[in-house]
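Help! Submission page says 'invalid entity' but I think these are all valid:
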Amino acid sequence: MSVRNDPITPEQIAEHGLSEDEYKLILEILGRPPSIVELGIFSVMWSEHCSYKSSKHWLKKLPTEAPWVICGPGENAGIVDVGGGMAAVFKAESHNHPSFIEPYQGAATGVGGILRDIFTMGARPVALLNALRFGSPDHEKTRHLVDGVVAGIGGYGNCIGVPTVGGETTFHAAYNGNNLVNAMCVGLVEQDRIFYAAAAGVGNPVVYVGAKTGRDGIHGATMASAEFNEESEAKRPTVQVGDPFTEKLLLEACLELMQTDAIVAIQDMGAAGLTSSSFEMASRGEVGIEMDLDRVPMRETGMTPYEIMLSESQERMLLVLREGAEDKARAIMAKWGLDFATVGKVTDTGSMVLRWHGETVADVPIAPVSGASPIYQRPYETREPALPVVAESVACPMPHDQALLKLMASPDLCSKKWIYEQYDHMVMADTVQRPGGDAAVVRIHGTERALALTIDCTPRYCHADPIDGGRQAVAEAWRNLTAVGARPLGVTDCLNFGNPENPVIMGQFVGCLEGIGEACQALDFPIVSGNVSLYNETDGQAILPTPTIGGVGLIEDLATSVGIAYDREDLTLVLIGETHGWLGNSLYLREICGREEGASPPVELAIERRNGDLVRTLIGDHLVAACHDVSDGGLLVALAEMATASRIGLALDLPNDLQSEAGWLFGEDQARYVLTIDPASLDAVLEAARNAGVVARAIGRTGGQSLTLRGCGVICLSDLTKRHEAWLPAFMSEER
Amino acid sequence: MQAGVITFPGSNCDRDAAVALQQAGAAVTRLWHAETELPRLDLIVLPGGFSYGDYLRCGAIAAKAPIMREVVRAAEAGIAVLGICNGFQLLAEAGLVPGALIANAGLKFVCREVGLDVVSTDSVFTANYDPAKPISIPVAHHDGNYVCDEEELQRLEDEDRIAFRYRDNPNGSVADIAGVFGPGRKVLGLMPHPERAADPATGGTDGAPMFKGLMEALS
């Protein structure tokens, strides 16, 4: 077999991000020098982004199983059983590098990509979430990035008609050169209509559908596997351009085609486009594929096979159809105005054979490219965790009421209304709890059951102590689901770190994964899908370790679900969980005292489990009117968030024997919740807590139009709300 | 009541509208934009979404879809036509309601609950509302800024054809207009989404009287 072959130069090898050893391995696999098309294929398939070569060894250690897990990591998305013959399909994915270079299109195509991962499996997407990390508000690029990323996410999700129901947005100087855009999508599918991506059936046609292929996004995966430097702007052409309208057509066309028996396997073309989709399908099915690349629908003239294989043009799918089903499939695609082309067929050779007008331009064995990519066990260093901060020793620079106002108007804690009002969060008419609470709640269409959805991480904790920070990210997601009354079912993770070739960064990665694994195990909260984004560094400055955790839970009966808003006065406030006054690495310490230091709050998983299980039971027993977990900013911020959401004030009784008022009010001790309950239920709640071995105490009551801290000041609710909602719009409209 | 909900490429509130109508008791037929004949209908709904990606101008391409010839003919024959959000933009493009919808004054997409005054209850769409009682219905659009010339505005006022006004204008619409009737009062275009406010579980029921009213008037 001859493959057209111009000699490969060392410069070309370096440009493709391949090491000398990796190139040697290519020579061994092929038994000859590669063609330029083949070099391109190895380059993207072995990129960090596609091969997980630095992370695979550690990812394997994560818990991924539970009786309700239908499909764990390795497919396009994870799947859990949600009862009634239905399943939830979900995944989160990063689109960090492109969103920094071209915020609107980078963020938009991040949403487009994660949507395709979901409907590829036969599920109708029902919700989107996102976690965004931006640089310091003082940095010159931040406003531009926030504006573009938010508009891009909205532009895509709004148009395709899937509600964006939740997320989080925070700011820190460590993201000045690398913002993070993590998008999560959740879909619903009938359990007997799930589609997978394993090609099968020698002779079956391989079919291309969707948008035409252009030159956009060539080498996007390779770009996402390298650090940034001053020349990164020049990489703008490697960012893809999204067309949500075409994606909407593709979504409807695919779901319509999936009602027939035409499809054997289906895979979207995401990172590394046609290369990755064809190799993954062939590899999963342990078959070969041959394709005539000149049959691929092209948007531009003069495209080369190299460009076609590496293009990351959006809104495309690769299908293996049953023989004879092509006419039926073509008719459905034509109805939706989409391109349809039979580009090849399944073979039994175990190789990928690519032709260009009859001439073979690549002939590569599939298994070594997909399965035997290099795996690195990179050296890592574990840093000593930071020292605890003694709450009593923290000097409070201002009265507590002033501190609360300042915290509630700080970039991380301020209202994110300016953002989520740009997202259609109600389309599909099943959004039960809108953005702004602990978890979004989306009804399973036509039923009284619902999904609870959240996305969380506290990067400053992960930086202070990667293991505890990893535990905390999972625990907080679990807690947010619990706080609306849901049973947590599964996790998708989006692991964002700096350069793994730096042992300190690798140490952060290893530590966070250890913590995540422990927490998932202890909370019965398995990881079912995810992605890894490394090299989030610019000129040697790495981001904070940011293992974003997306969580999905199930509410069996919507009537038992609660939110953070209470609806009346004279309810009793009950604090669940123990308060030691942990100020280390808290937002109080950072925003009020100007100190970014100290050990993060310890996460005791057994206590986490016990407290959360009790709260879920109390909610299920209709004993709780509203519930909020206590996280960033501590107890007083949690109460302030409840009061502003409720538009009803509250009075808080501070215990008499406090060693540090600030510690009690603003400490970020974990495993805590605030409940509002009918006073008549107080005894029952406290007794249930005692029986479960959970610390619980009444701390005040709802009512009035202010937050009254006994002995520590009165904060007018309308002032608080105004300050809370003002920061972000003011920041975004500032003239520069 | 026989209601038809039209799906254009890019419509995304078609299912929501169909569900709200069915919950009010209507028999709903889903119609495809390429069809050239309509079944016998009492109500035609042009749903929200981004028909043809809102490329060119919102609603401009959909207004030329084959089925729209039949919709115009039906409207002229007195069949009720309801255009919600993108459907309103489409009605304006098709000339079934006056005026046009341009980009929001803030130049950003806005999705939020808005307060509305029901200005005119003299229609099959609004008969069930109490004009003294403001209602709350969500909006979700980027191009909901209603514009028309002064002469047209005067005519709308004189003929009592302003259906809804915003209490806190989210998009810069002239005279706070959120919805208007066509000349015969049997065509309504509005930016807010009544179909998203027809179920207590998802946050409100102020849209329900519209569907219930249509059921009563058209069955």
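Support: the input was valid. A stray whitespace character was the problem, and the output above is from the cleaned input. Helices of chain B lie at 14-23, 66-76, 86-94, 150-158, 208-218.
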